[in-house]
Amino acid sequence: MIVMFIVGIILVLEFIGALIYAGKSASGLTYVICRPFGIPFSMFLGFVIRVALIAIAVFCLAKSIPAIFVNLFD
Question: Using an 8 Å Cβ cutoff, are 56 and 67 in contact?
Fold first, then answer.
């Protein structure tokens, strides 16, 4: 479960870092959407990968956080 928590945190931090790097311009946002983890893709494929990464992060955090904290207080 700790590995899932770490993967979720890494994916969330990558997404937040990408949004900060994008700045306030639309071209910066499209640049970031097309390059998850700095790997260039087409706009559609980059968007699909970005959405999948966010879904994986949510899944990992939703599964790991309750398991970690329930075991912590037992």
Answer: no
